[in-house]
Amino acid sequence: MSAVVEVKNLTKEYKQKKAVDDLSFEIRQGEILGLLGPNGSGKSTTINCILSLLKYSAGSIKIFGEEMTPDAYKIKRDIGVIFQEVAVFEELTVYENIDYFCGLYVKDKQERKKDIEDAIALVGLDEFRKYYPKQLSGGLLRRLNIACGIAHKPKLIFLDEPTVAVDPQSRNNILDGIRKLRDDGATICYTTHYMEEVEILCDRIIILDRGKIIAQGTSDELKALAKIEEKVTIETKHFKPEFLEKLQAAPNVDKAEYAGHQLVITYKSGKNNVAKLIEELSAAGITCNKIFSERPTLNDVFLELTGKELRD
Ligand SMILES: Nc1ncnc2c1ncn2[C@@H]1O[C@H](COP(=O)(O)OP(=O)(O)OP(=O)(O)O)[C@@H](O)[C@H]1O
């Protein structure tokens, strides 16, 4: 896959503080790249530097193989940007707003009409096309904001935390829409601090912390960095302490604890941990009410690499 965006040794300082610290990465043709990091990790600053909205202290940025500058209008024509803050006209309806933003790029009326209809369908705003922004809920407004940013069919799309404080229905609609844009050929950069979203949405993920890349790869590649392989929780009222000792001595067990009728085991490795455990429990005459197994999340990866939680 060729690189649509190439960022090399990007550094951005605000006074003494490095908001972005020597970042190098690429966004590949046709992928959804997730930039994941806690608040203040440098996601928005990175995007704003890529878009030439901010001057940076050092580094270079190429988009579509050409150097990105504030007056690179040919490159900008093929970029769509959706910021966190909704930026639409209160005086215009849903349809008119999309028409306005699309009209900045697409002059042909018939072509624009089709683009607007495609955008309305993508974000599911058909029944609201005559509504004014103040008549829309927060989630619908975000959907309008996205429609305005992508109606001109850009090849490269940046979405900066588009689902913050959005209701679940609009969130699902937005995530489905982004997948569809990718499937239709767009390259997408998606920033968020919601790890669940990047896990289900992104082809590749870059984890940022304090302006630096701390890990990158697919969700599975990143999870392989977590120390644990699986966490199994069992509810049982008839536990036998000697069984705990046996578990703790097993070579693939990282930790085994029993408290409040719950046995929690974290495994370092192993493929059929739950099946083997059920067999062993049954052989030891221990009955259990509930068993559930969890795989490591990106939060575990973040915890492993930084010693702190990614969650808010
Ligand atoms: N205009 C500014 N002046 C000074 N410091 C700034 C400015 N903008 C951002 N910063 C600092 O730079 C760092 C990175 O901020 P940035 O907004 O890029 O992070 P973020 O990961 O996008 O966070 P969020 O998820 O909250 O949007 C933070 O420490 C922030 O306080």
Automatic annotation (TrEMBL):
One Pfam entry name: ABC_tran
Record keywords: ATP-binding, Nucleotide-binding, Transport
Taxonomic superkingdom: Bacteria
One term of GO molecular function: ATP binding
Gene3D superfamilies: P-loop containing nucleotide triphosphate hydrolases (3.40.50.300)
Occurrences of domain ABC transporter (ranges): 5-235
InterPro entries: AAA+_ATPase (IPR003593), ABC_transporter-like_ATP-bd (IPR003439), DrrA1/2-like_C (IPR025302), P-loop_NTPase (IPR027417)
Protein known as: ABC transporter ATP-binding protein
Lineage: Bacteria, Bacillati, Bacillota, Clostridia, Lachnospirales
